[in-house]
Structures are given as structure tokens and as C-alpha cells.
Amino acid sequence: MKLHAGTEAGEQHKFLYKYRINALFYQKNPAWIRKVEGCIFSVLTLSLERIIIKELGQRICISIQVMKIYAKEISKMSKIILTGDRPTGRLHVGHYVGSLKERVKLQNSGEYDEIYIMIADAQALTDNAEHPEKVRQNIMNVALDYLACGIDPEKCHIFIQSMVPELTELTFYYMNLVTVSRVQRNPTVKAEIKQRNFEASIPVGFFCYPISQAADITAFRATTVPVGEDQMPMIEQCKEIVHKFNSVYGETLTDPEIVLPSNKSCLRLPGIDGKAKMSKSLGNCIYLSDEEDVVKKKVMSMFTDPNHLRVEDPGQVEGNPVFIYLDAFCKDEYFEEFWPEYKNLDELKAHYQRGGLGDVKVKKFLNKVLQAELAPIRARRKEWEQKLPEVFAILKEGSKAAEAKAAETLQDVKAAMRINYFDDADFLN
To answer: How far apart are CA 395 and CA 402, in angstroms?
Structure first.
């Protein structure tokens, strides 16, 4: 089938849709489809009347109208990831096992069409407005940690939140769909307010950041959001906003799904002080960039079973941070390498529980495990530290791609809300 300038729009759409299906699911013509998709950005952002694609001897003329329809069809069929972190400090091992490791796995799975990873500086400013330099300085720290952990800029768009102004506008519109009482009931918001001792002095921006997060997710039509367990209430709030918007204005936004770490021990890694959550603000972290001697010092100072006073005493593994860390990081092969007396973690736990095993020995083993896990991450980070202009370029290109995607969604949102006045031919009717 060949298309010409005079071909009906409906026929053009059928042709494009057919080849999209073939390319994605039957791999019949992936080269052709890449050419088509490569034109979408140009069509949506430039004043073009038509696109001509030549492939396999075919000369295909595609109108703007059809290409826009086609772009929406692609979006509906795509699997898209959106996730990110606040740049309030370097990332720690809790971030790694709680989300980063999962992101790298998903990135390399080949199952996702688009991946957006956000450095959430605007969210960081909600409780750091008086310390903007702290946020500014940590932009590169977070980017370096991403790259060190294996986030691939060839497969992912790493971007800075404030460089995508469409997110702010979407947040403003979504605020009208959420009640104050609903935000007040959000468990994560309540916990964060308590942790920061905001009490009655809660910044409005911080209070509303679940809505901002919904804007971040929906702007990229994310189908998948890999995050830690503490973000579950946020995703639920996002889903509520999506359902509310779609019920009021028509089907426009994509309903996301959360992806938690498969290892349950990784859902919420405690701090080295035994506190429920490892947190930069609490200063109880082991950072991904910590040098070997620093990691060792932190491990050897870790909180453990307070009732395990003597080596011969039975010890408790449940709720014991040392064993929670081993659950999260340890592999059977580490025993063969570092502690051949045991075959696996179950044997080690059994010995500790019946008594006769000291905390120092267990901590020394944990240190070796963490060093084995963190050594390649530290090495890659140091390599990237020597290429900061390249990292800067990655962030700039990623932010450009992210803004283009968010602009497309915002256009659809405004059309659904009927506030796209100058693009609406029926406005004067």
C-alpha cells in the first residue's frame, strides 16, 4: 500500500497503525517504525503541513492531523517509566535496594518504550526554600549516583524537574481536584511533617507535594513507577487524581502502577542507628559514594540486638538492622568467599539465634558484603566525576526530551478541560 498527498486521513491512520502493530509485536519492519516515530516530535513542535517518509521504495505523505492521532496511539500502547529522587544529598544504600537497583533491572529488561528519571529539585525546595544552594549542589551528586548505579543515558532520560515548567501548570490544575482533608490523610505526608517538626508551620508547597508528584507521573503518561514502599500512598493519591480528572473531563490521563522491590527486606531499609527509616536528614545513612573506610566504620557502629550482651546469649534477627541489611544485600556466593563456615544466611541466622555468635563477627561479614556491592558503584562514580561536562550535557538533553513529552500531555489536558482557547476552532461558536 502506498500513500499520497490526497489519501484520506482515516486511511493514513489505518496504515500507520498497522505498521506500528507489525513493528512492535511481530518485528516485521522496525526500521520503518523508528523513522515514523522519529518524526513525531518535529510534527508536534514545528509548523509543518506534512511529513514524507521514504522506506523500502515507498514515498509516504503523512498529514499533521494523522501524525498527532498516531502519536496518541503510540502513547496508549507504550510502557513508560517515571521515577526520581530529591536532590537534598547524596543517595544512600536504602535508595539503591529500595528503588535504584529495580530501575536498572527494568531499564535493561527491554520491556519499556520510554524511561524518565527525574531529579526532583522543585520538590526538594518545598522544605528547603531558604537553602537553595543545598539543592543546587546536590543536582550533580544525584546524577553521578544514578550513572554510577548503572542508569544508562542511552536508555533513559535523566532530567531536572524545574526545567520542565509544564509540571507546575499541571500541578495547579490538579489542585482543584483534591481536598485539603484528603492530603491531610496521606500517611507519607503526615509522617514527613512529623519528622520535620513542621507542626502548624507547614509550607503550602510541601503540603501539596503529593499533587505535584501526580503531575510528574501523569505528564509522562507513566504506566510504571518503581519506588520504595513509603511512596505507596503517593501513588494511590495519583491514581485518585487520574480517575477524578478522567471522570470529569474524559479519558485523558494514564493510570500508573507502582513497582516495589521484589526482595521484601528492601522495602524500607532501617538506619544504622536502628531507626525505622534510613534518611539523609537523620544522618543515619551509608551513602553509595562513601569510601571503604567510612563504610566499615558505619557498619561496625550499627545498632543490633540490645539484649545480645554476651556471645553465648541467644540473639534476635527480627528487627535487627545488621540482619536486615544482610537480607537485602547478601548472596550465597559471599559465604563461599568471605565466611565458608556457613552455606547461606539461614545457617548464620540459626547460629545467632541459638547463641554462640558475636555481633562483631556478623558485622565484619556484613562489611565485606557491602564493600563487594559498593566497590563497582564507587569506581564508576569516580569515572563520571572526571566527565562532569558530559554529565551536564546528559541532564540538558534529558530535560529537553522530558519537556517535549510533558508539553504534549499538557496540550491534551487543556484540550480536555476546554481551556485551549486559541487552538479551539469552536471557541467563538
So the answer is: 10
Q: What is the pLDDT of residue 73?
A: 57
Amino acid at 375: A
pLDDT digit string (tens) for 141-174? 999 999 999 999 999 999 999 999 999 999 999 9
Copy the grid coordinates of residue 101.
Answer: 537497583
Closest CA to 213 of 190, 239, 193: 239
Surface-to-core class of residue 354, CB atoms within 10 Å of its CB (0-12 exposed, 13-18 middle, 19+ buried): exposed
* Complete domains list, the chain, with CATH: 9-75 (no CATH), 78-268+387-423 (3.40.50.620), 292-384 (1.10.240.10)
Q: What is the DSSP letter of 116?
A: E
> Which residues of the chain fall below pLDDT 70?
1-77, 263-267, 276
Residue 222 has φ and ψ, to the nearest 5°, of -65, 130
Residue type, 186: N
Residue 338 C-alpha from the chain's centroid: 34
C-alpha span between 291 and 279 (Å, rounded): 19
150 neighbors 383 (Cβ within 8 angstroms): no
Residues β-bridged to residue 224: 81, 257
- Please report which helix (H) or strand (E) contains residue 405, including its range: helix 388-417
β pairing state of 58-63 and 50-55: antiparallel
Residues found in the chain:
429
Grid coordinates belonging to 19: 505498521
What lies within 8 Å, CB to CB, of 130 at 6+ separation is none
What is the reported pLDDT for 46? 44
